[in-house]
Structure formats: structure tokens, C-alpha cells
Design a protein that fits this description.
The protein is an alpha/beta fold and 438 residues long. The chain has 2 domains: 275 residues, Rossmann fold (3-Layer(aba) Sandwich), CATH 3.40.50.11540; 73 residues, no CATH class. The chain is 28% helix and 21% strand. It contains 14 helices and 19 strands. The strands form 5 sheets. A 6-stranded mixed β-sheet has the order 3-16-15-19-17-18. The longest helix is centred in the middle third of the chain and has 15 residues. It is globular. It binds iron/sulfur cluster (SF4) (2 copies). The site of one iron/sulfur cluster has 15 residues, from helix 13 and helix 14. It holds the Pfam family RnfC_N.
Length: 438
């Protein structure tokens, strides 16, 4: 992958986004959809259908089992072919409902009705969003109970990240540019739902920054919430939740902290579009937008797809001009995305990009040459080589004393390591193990 500049606290990549189509491509319908009952931080729901059952578009097919699961709806009309365990790209094993497309779409074309959401209470709005299957489009995906305060409670700060997270991810920028009106209606509904004391929007610092800022101030003037616009830093991993919170008010969170429990609601335009569709059409979340890019894709494009579309169907769409079959596929961007050889795994909220790169042979790890590249780029001012040494010599406590708990698992240290040491994966494993024992 090409790097333009290494800088203190991050890495700047060449501008992949300029290679994207300006328009959103609505893809053809997938032949099957794969719908795990749980994914990301969303706990499994209970299936309401059985193998062989016919389902309609928008039909409830699994109901929540607890607060951290969400209802699941069929994005297409079809027949349930199977309900079986699959392995998701993050390694999680989940039962999934697999639906084969058949039958017809009988949804009447509806115009948006925005009169009703203005008159319902914040608590009712919260419950409506939950009941229609809203999940936050972060990685990993979050159920409402993990990214919003409890129904009727007020948030401290609502943060909107209107810029992309990784190279080859253009989804949030395209939504901001092409679907601004819908996004702002979704934002107003979320302001009404979470009643924040402060609203902060992070915008790309491009030529339109001033115009976009003025437009947002004009649109949000009536909402009664002090609003700030902040320029996004143009290097990776400035879009991470913890980095945004630190930039907003100086609070430094550590591993295991849940922003919503501390009063922060963080969302992206893609989540706001789901909020808009729920309140404007009173329908569940059935579609999503995803960037498909990478050096094996001839025409990187943001695609509008049915939720649960398998990646093998998506990357073979002719408009994307796949250049070779010998590829590495990442669910997410190439820095923190998950890779898997099973291309039947679906695209779901939480995955804003599919990155398809020509396959490369990974170099074998060697010994640390003390070049300090890893500490130069670490956005959390950590000394990755020191943390790695501590963990490898089973001195995990010392690693925590040296700041391991503040690692955001961004993968930059591993990315720049000249000895190809698996720094970030080792940190993630150590953090996970300690979290499980607490
Ligand atoms: S993975 Fe952790 S240690 Fe490595 S650069 Fe990112 S924050 Fe720093
Ligand atoms: S980048 Fe790799 S080789 Fe260089 S100091 Fe860090 S761990 Fe050692």
C-alpha cells in the first residue's frame, strides 16, 4: 500500500478517494442474502422462521433476545434456504438465516412523511429506532443500547464523523455530499432522541469546508443545541472514536470504556441515513451503502446494496471491473478490516468498505531493529516495541503500566514495522484476554 507521509501520531495515505465514482451505484439484487443473528457487538436474536419458509421483504425474521440484540428483517422476498452456523470474517461463529431471492417486491412507492417524528417523545423515538433494527455503522457494529444513552436520558455530546476512516473508504464522504438533506433530517431526529448538551460535527478540511460549515449552522440553528464544527485531521487513525472524543474535549478513554456510558453518542452519516429511512418511511433497515475499492478494483465505487449481500456477489458486479481473481479481501479498510478466504460472508452495518487488493505474500517476521518507526506513528504516544517485548516475555502487567490500555488497536505500528512484527494483533489479544478475566 502506498504511503504519502509518515507523521507523528499517524500516517497519511495517497488520496484514494479521488479515484472513486462521484455517484452511488444501486447494485442488482443479490441471489441470496446471509443474515447472521448477531454480529459485531450485537448479540444473537431468536429466529422466527424455519427452513423452507417463504418470507416477504421487510418481514421480521428474528426477534431480540436481550438489550444487546436487535430485530432482524428480511431485506428481500424469498425462501429460507438454511439456518446454520457460519464463521464471520472477525472469526466469530454465528447462526445465520440464508434467504434465496424469489417472489416479488410489493412495496408501494411511498413519499417521505416527516410530520410524525416531530410529535413523538424522545423515549418513543428511541424505541422506534430500536424496533426497526437500527445499528451503528461503526466497526464493530453497535446496537442502540451500546451507542445511545438509555431511552429518555440525555447525552453529553453528540459527535458526527463526516469523514472516512481508512484508505479505500469513501462511504461517509459520498453520503455527506450526495444525501446531505436526508442526513440532516436523520441528525435532527437523533438530536431529539438523545437530547445532547452539545453537538460536534467533524468535516473534511477541503475546499468546501467553509461553505459546508455555514450550511450546517444555518440548518441546525433552530435545534436549540450549541453546535461546533471541527476540521477532521487528514491522517489515519484520526477517525477512531477515542481520538474524536479526545479532540472534542480532551477526555482520554481507555480499552473497555464505552463512550455511550460516559455520555458520548458517536455516529456517521450512514447511521443517520438509516435513522432518516426509519422516521420518513416507517420501515426497517434493509439496505446500506458500502465503498468497494482496492488496487484490484478497476472502478472504485460506493454501492447501495441489500443488507447481507455476500461479498462474492458484490465484487463481481461488472461496473466495478475486478482486475484479477487472485485477491486479498478485507471486510473494512486494509488497516483494521478482517480478511477471509470465504467470500460468502456478508456485508452488514459496521462494514463501510470492502477492500480488494491483489494478493501479496506476507513477509516473515524478523527481530526488532530498534528503528522507532512504530513509536513515531503511534497516535496514543505509546512505545509499541516496549509493549511487545513485555507481552512476549509474559510481563503483561508491565505492558499495562506502560500504557497498553490506551492502545486503540489501529494497526499502524504493525503497518510501519520494518521487521514485520505482529505488534497490533499481539496487543489486541492481550487486551482481549485481560478483559475476559475482569
Ligand atoms: S495499535 Fe496501539 S500501539 Fe500500535 S500504533 Fe495503534 S494505538 Fe499505538
Ligand atoms: S517498527 Fe518494528 S523494528 Fe522498528 S522499533 Fe518498532 S518493533 Fe522494532
Amino acid at each position: 500500500m502506498n504511503i504519502l507521509t509518515k507523521k507523528k501520531k499517524g500516517v497519511e495515505f495517497i488520496d484514494y478517494r479521488s479515484r472513486f465514482c462521484d455517484d452511488v451505484l444501486t447494485t442488482a439484487l443479490p441471489r441470496i442474502v446471509v443474515l447472521p443473528l448477531g454480529y459485531g457487538k450485537i448479540k444473537p436474536a431468536n429466529p422466527l422462521v424455519h427452513e423452507g419458509a417463504a418470507v416477504k421483504e421487510g418481514q421480521l425474521i428474528a426477534k431480540p433476545d436481550n438489550r444487546e440484540s436487535i430485530p432482524l428483517f428480511s431485506p428481500v422476498p424469498g425462501v429460507v434456504k438454511d439456518i446454520r452456523k457460519i464463521t464471520l470474517p472477525d472469526g466469530d461463529k454465528q447462526s445465520a438465516i440464508i434467504i434465496e431471492l424469489s417472489g416479488t417486491f410489493n412495496r408501494k412507492s411511498a413519499s417521505p412523511d416527516l410530520s410524525s417524528y416531530i410529535n413523538v417523545s424522545p423515549e418513543e423515538l428511541w424505541k422506534l429506532l430500536y424496533a426497526r433494527g437500527l445499528a451503528r455503522h461503526s466497526q464493530p457494529a453497535l446496537p442502540p443500547y451500546l451507542f445511545m444513552p438509555l431511552p429518555g436520558k440525555k447525552a453529553k455530546t453528540l459527535i458526527v464523523r463526516c469523514f472516512p476512516n481508512q484508505p479505500w473508504d469513501n462511504t461517509e464522504s459520498i453520503i455527506f455530499r450526495n444525501m446531505y438533506r436526508e442526513m440532516m433530517i436523520g441528525l435532527h431526529a437523533l438530536v431529539r432522541t438523545t437530547m445532547p448538551q452539545r453537538l460536534v460535527l467533524f468535516l473534511e478540511k477541503d475546499a468546501d469546508y467553509q461553505n459546508n460549515s455555514e450550511k450546517i449552522f444555518a440548518d441546525s440553528r433552530e435545534w436549540g443545541v450549541p453546535t461546533a464544527i471541527m476540521p477532521a485531521d487528514d491522517f489515519y487513525p484520526s477517525a477512531h472514536d477515542f481520538m474524536l472524543i479526545e479532540k472534542t474535549d480532551g477526555t482520554r478513554l481507555k480499552y473497555g470504556d464505552i463512550p455511550a456510558m460516559m455520555g458520548y453518542v458517536i455516529v456517521e452519516p450512514s447511521t443517520l441515513i438509516d435513522v432518516y429511512n426509519i422516521i420518513a418511511f416507517d420501515r426497517p433497515v434493509l439496505e446500506q451503502l458500502v465503498s468497494v475499492g482496492g488496487d484490484a478494483i478497476g472502478q472504485p465505487t460506493v454501492c447501495k446494496i441489500k443488507k447481507g449481500m455476500p461479498v462474492f456477489e458484490l465484487v463481481n458486479i461488472k461496473e466495478l471491473s475486478l482486475k484479477t481473481e487472485d485477491v486479498d479481501v478485507f471486510w473494512g479498510g486494509p488497516m483494521t478490516g478482517y480478511s477471509s478466504d470465504w467470500l460468502g460472508s456478508p456485508v452488514l452495518p459496521g462494514i463501510s468498505a470492502i477492500t480488494v487488493n491483489k494478493r501479496v505474500r506476507k513477509p516473515c517476521p524478523s527481530v526488532c531493529i530498534k528503528c522507532a518507526s512504530c513509536s513515531a506513528v503511534c497516535p496514543r504516544n505509546l512505545e509499541p516495541m516496549l509493549l511487545y517485548d513485555f507481552i512476549e516475555s509474559s510481563e503483561v502487567e508491565k505492558a499495562f503500566k506502560a500504557g497498553l490500555g490506551y492502545c486503540i488497536e489501529c494497526g499502524l505500528c504493525s503497518f510501519v514495522c520494518q521487521s514485520s512484527l505482529p505488534l497490533s494483533p499481539v496487543f489486541s489479544q492481550a487486551l482481549k484476554e485481560v478483559n475476559q478475566h475482569e
